[in-house]
């Protein structure tokens, strides 16, 4: 055996070779099917930790696998570079956000390259450079021109620590998702994207292969409700109310308005005004998440006014409560405490009547201990008594429509996407305000609107650029008069809602993307990222894609055909975080034991979609496995080099060209073939489904098997040489450097990553096989070995495809195939 396995040295060698040869740079080629493999790009936080590796390395394994299967694979990389961390760093240290970000990109690029991934670095993008955000601005203008971007005053989630507005999706349990501060509410002029126009289409996941969990999360977030809008009369004006339960309208005993509802001011009586105003002020300081929290004690105030139920003409007291939101439905609900638990809790708290109008089976008029929310029989409902509640639902909906008391309606929980941010480090909103002309888009030829370098970053609750006169003061493009620029920035999720399109032509200057390259590469074939992005990035990217399709810029409606969510790395039973002091830095590991060992260990610690726990001791097992592979091949290379003479029956390995011979068929050879082909099948199916832990287990078993077989005469066979090649080919996606080195040492053609993926033979891969004779019109012509579980259709195809049979049977001659399982296949011609 020759040299010791020096993983770091081998990896540096091959990474330099791959980069010099531009092995992983991609172009549009017609002779191969394309495969666009994309990982969610990293934020420029400054350092790559082992959690990043857990996202990137296994994903690269699948990309390499697809390349070896004959696909033209593009695996690009870039950086999500706008956002609060850079701005906060500028405030804290005095470093300009651009400088801070570019330093981090340089460091992260260097770290990412040590993974040994097949990234096409010629396609690298960063969302914070003008060459990119020029087109972010341009795309904003296209949505604005088509009525999908608008400005409006609306209550917004406000983070007092970050001093900026947050989208609903960025508020987690009432707190800012970035800093954890309690979120409050403010009324502000904001820019929105009309994502609600796509609510119904966003519920359709046909044609894409996404995890059920993400599909469910998006559907719940969109929150489609089918119901009716019923109009209640008040002293001031009509009060429309949306309900999903028109069958319960006879059970309404109170109305509840959102504290922000415009009718509150008009309807509140003088004796109730002070208490109402205090309550409204309190509610406006709370986030939507807080107001909707489960188990929260109900609060509210009577405003002194009444509404009239249009079906039974009863007067109903009107209250306000923070559990009703101004942004859902009409901002008002009809209180049906008998059949809605929140209403029941409210009625119990304030002593309001509870009327049963949907009776459960066997109900005898007794008082309910909780709201009955299931189907039943209608009671206390006038002409609709005795109807099953589902029938009553339809009848009452028809009744109110016929008498113009309301209408059937579909409502969505989804709100329009608020994109305004009152910070500096983001893409400018390309809009100008003119007293004479109003809102004026920046002309496309004037893009990009550049961020000024001399900005003040200290947060004030307004955009830092509001007081930068050189930026704010400008000329109206329409009338030429004095005007002011918009100083808010776009939500950084806008940058990531189209970055996957830019990768197709990252240096293109005539538009956001080259149409020909876009049509070749898009949509993304495989997207990989965390489930935590389900209701933000993944939802926004779907909306943005559909909007660009309708504008006519692209011809597809879904950005990502397949989606996979990786799990999380756990260290010391906790998610990695700086505060817990359990962040694992990969750089020292790469320098000590090599990237291949880190890659393989991350894939071995557990199912990739579930995550796993990092163990410094556990990685030693992977090191030993890779060393066994090294030793196995080194012994074989040494044996081939020192063999005194060629065997009697000379033949060359298809893969290596080494001279080998096959002795007469032996059980050892059959066992080697069976083990090899079963391993190919197992590894292939595991990689296809991202089951990397079991894939590596199969490779470990196969390596151990080959180490034992190496002590037998089977090493003199062609099958043995093919088995060694198979091991390296199967290992190549997971440990690309080691596989490349050993492949080269065997004298095989460069690069192993350009070789074809091994294909298994079902006969060899079967656990049990038997021999059947093949006859034509009853006359035996051949024999073949088939798996025990083969179907009649499959055995017929195999029989017709055999060389001896094709001498006697031409295409179209076969009229019937008779199969006697385990014995005979008879091909009938004529």
Task: Summarize the model shown.
This protein has about 850 residues and is α+β, with helices and mostly antiparallel strands. It is built from 27 helices and 36 strands.
Question: Can you lay out the helices and strands and say which pair or pack?
Answer:
Layout: H1 7-21, E1 34-39, H2 50-68, E2 72-74, E3 78-79, H3 84-93, H4 97-113, E4 125-126, H5 130-145, E5 149-159, E6 164-166, E7 171-172, E8 175-176, E9 184-193, H6 199-202, H7 212-222, E10 224-234, E11 239-243, E12 254-257, H8 262-267, H9 273-284, H10 288-291, E13 301-308, E14 315-320, E15 332-335, H11 341-350, E16 358-359, E17 377-378, H12 389-402, E18 406-412, E19 417-418, E20 420-421, E21 431-434, E22 438-441, H13 469-472, E23 473-475, E24 482-485, E25 489-490, H14 492-495, H15 499-502, H16 515-521, E26 526-528, H17 537-551, E27 563-564, E28 569-571, E29 574-575, H18 586-593, H19 595-604, E30 612-613, H20 619-642, E31 651-652, E32 659-660, H21 667-688, H22 692-709, H23 718-731, H24 736-745, H25 762-765, E33 769-776, E34 779-787, H26 792-801, H27 803-806, E35 814-820, E36 824-829
Parallel strand pairs: 1-2, 1-26, 3-4, 12-14, 26-27, 28-30, 33-36
Antiparallel strand pairs: 5-6, 5-9, 7-8, 9-19, 10-11, 10-13, 10-18, 12-15, 13-14, 16-17, 20-25, 21-22, 21-24, 23-24, 28-29, 31-32, 33-34, 35-36
Helix pairs in contact: 1-24, 2-19, 3-4, 18-19, 19-20, 20-22, 21-22, 21-23, 22-23, 23-24
Descriptive report:
It is a single chain. With 830 residues, this protein is α+β, with helices and mostly antiparallel strands. The protein folds into five domains: 176 residues, HUPs (Rossmann fold, 3-Layer(aba) Sandwich), CATH 3.40.50.620; 163 residues, HUPs (Rossmann fold, 3-Layer(aba) Sandwich); 189 residues, Isoleucyl-tRNA Synthetase, domain 2; 148 residues, Isoleucyl-tRNA Synthetase, Domain 1 (Orthogonal Bundle), CATH 1.10.730; 63 residues, Ubiquitin-like (UB roll). 36% of the residues lie in helices and 19% in strands. The strands form eleven sheets. Strands 10, 11, 12, 13, 14, 15 and 18 form a seven-stranded mixed sheet that branches. Helix 18 crosses helix 19. The longest helix has 24 residues.
